[in-house]
Amino acid sequence: MRSTCQVDPPDVDEACKCLTQTVPYGRNISIYFRRQIVARARGKDILRNPTLNKGTGFTADERDELGLRGLLPYNRCSQEVQMERILGHLRRKESDIERYIALNALQDRNEQLYFRVLMEHVDELMPIVYTPTVGQACREFASIYRRPKGFYITPDDRGHVRRMLDNWPEDDVRVIVVSDGERILGLGDLGANGMGIPIGKLALYVALAGIHPSWCLPVMLDVGTGNEELLKDPLYMGWPHARVRGEAYDALMEEFIAAVTDRWPHVLVQFEDFETTNALRLLEIWRDRTLSFNDDIQGTAAVTLSGVMAATRVSGTPFEELRVLFVGAGSAATGIGHLMASALVEHGLSEEEALGRLWFVDSKGLVVKDREGQLAAHKQPFAHDHVPMQLEEAVGDIRPHILIGATGAPGTFTESVVRKMAEINERPGIFALSNPTSQAECTAEEAYAWSDGRALFASGSPFAPVEYEGRTLYPAQGNNAYIFPGVGLGAVACGARRITDTMFMAAAKRLAGLVSDEQLERGALYPPMKNSREVSLEVAHAVAEVAYDEDLAREARPDDLRRVLRNMQFDPTY
What is the C-alpha separation between 110 and 79, in angstroms, rounded? Predict the structure, then answer.
């Protein structure tokens, strides 16, 4: 994967071109950027550039060479000391939103330090960089805006998108996360304020999987908003019109995909936080036409399936005998349902039998065939011949082993519902997956208290450990961050032509296999987040292997795939 180019021509552009070919991956990318410093920038220009800046980390020789002498305090600080200073600064903040702002400011001035801090303290900082704090950051996006990040496309840009992309300075973008801001977490339509989601997701691609930051592009498809409060807000920075739909929306999306795949032919496009109808429709349109996936549908499905597989190791219920009740029947819930049905078929059930094990409750009650004409198409495969009933009655009648919430409605799992689950099951599975934490169907403390400490609990956003009758229970976090960064790394490494459900199935199985018996005993259905780099590497390995097996990889299969993946991972150390 590396050329033998060793010349060092005096022409700057030729030198940088040669270096790009010679050291495209891993820690050596930082060598490339340091060479760019020598060639292109000096003095304060370096300190103002977050990609190049190391702050007080520049050595005495570097300060002489780069025109920095006198521009920095005398003492050269190691990156470890810089991290200690940053962490102390963050921990003195009084609120998580202040920590979010401080981390953003760090990213704006020293990108390598930002990612090193995030990578080595992911347990502490991921809830700040992403859910739940990112939800508040999106709500307050206009108020906390400091420096531009990402790329914005509006209906006014029709016909100009490809030319606009030339304004983006990076010529090798590998991963795009795009949102239209209509369904931000469980918070609804936040319009262009939803840009915090693509920015946060891509920060996790870098920190958890090692995707190089220069390969990442956050995109907001700003097609307006149906949120009247935003439209009336003088601080709102988005396209100030009602949300565009129909043919105009589809034409802009078509132009966007054509433009990005023209500039970066093998780029991976991740759809994020689209409203249910659009999420399902866009996935169906694009999944076979370009390298793309929807994390809310497919990533959520994989991480949930993994948690359920791990839970069966504790409960002792054979996977093929599971009955699962979903509360909420949007794109996330039905996405989980389809992947779980495929897993049940793999375990020997017919498709009809597999679908018969999966039940759904929506806002009108149990999804049954009697109201089939009123059901959206994505719910119809899960409609059964059964009398209508509400959630608590359905739990008693269906007797599910696992209860999965994807409603965005806090308090949906009431005490009586959880207690009924605990009457039916020795180790009931309670998956309260709605984000952020404030939207979870129940809290970890409630799930444990109402089940006499027996619940196998998982949530979408983190909950602190719970003390229950002298035991410390560790709530599992079914966070998509266990899945999507590894999917991206695997797809980029093998040059995947498209992303398939088989890849997400492989990712789920690999993730479930990484949970130790000791971790399961403590209630942790997922491996520790601090191991995220290794987890993402294993997920990437599983995904790439499927791509090779299904003849969907452009790159030749290497003798040592793990070594290739590890060598690709960005190392922000200096």
Answer: 11
Cite the DSSP H helix spans in 41-121.
Answer: 44-47, 60-66, 79-91, 96-109, 111-120
Task: List residues bridging with 477 in a β-sheet.
Answer: 459
Please enumerate in sequence order all residues whose Cβ is within 8 A of that of 14, keeping only pairs 6 or more positions apart, or say none. none
CA-closest candidate to residue 532, choices 461, 477, 573: 477
pLDDT at residue 374, rounded to an integer: 82
Per-residue pLDDT, averaged over 345-373, amounts to 94
Q: Is 482 a catalytic residue?
A: no
Q: Give this prediction's pTM.
A: 0.91
Q: Encoding tokens for residue 420?
A: 């009924």
CB 478 within 8 A of CB 433: yes
What sign does the dihedral 220-488-167-105 (CA atoms) show? positive
Residue 96, phi-psi category: left (phi > 0), alpha (psi -120 to 50), beta (remainder): alpha
Banded pLDDT at 20 (limits 50, 70, 90): very low
Kindly state the average pLDDT of the residues 442-470: 95
| Residue 63 vs residue 20, higher pLDDT | 63
Closest to 181 in 3D by CA, of 57, 77, 279? 279
User: Pick from 498, 495, 462, 486: which is nearest to 543 by CA?
Assistant: 486
Element (H, E) at 535: helix 532-549
Tokens of 567: 């060598």
Compute the distance between CA of residue 242 and CA of residue 227 in angstroms, rounded to an integer. 8
Ramachandran angles phi, psi of 471, nearest 5°: -110, 150
What domains can be seen in the chain, in order of their start residue?
A: 12-78 (no CATH), 96-271 (3.40.50.10380), 291-547 (3.40.50.720)
Q: How many helices (H) and strands (E) does the chain have?
A: 26, 14
User: Catalytic: which of 100, 114, 130, 448?
Assistant: 130
pLDDT at 67 (0 to 100): 95
d(CA 568, CA 205): 13
Residue 67 token pair:
């025109």
Q: Among the options 54, 201, 379, 420, which is catalytic? A: 201
Short-list 352, 295, 357, 347, CA closest to 326: 357
What confidence tens digit (pLDDT) does each residue in 142-201 have?
999 999 999 999 999 999 999 999 999 999 999 999 999 999 998 999 999 999 999 999
Instruction: Please write the tens of the pLDDT for every residue from 283-309.
Output: 999 999 999 999 999 999 999 999 999
Under the banding of pLDDT at 50, 70 and 90, the label for residue 54 is: very high
Q: Shortest CA distance to 114 belongs to which of 172, 53, 174? A: 53
At which residue do the structure tokens 């999106």 appear? 138
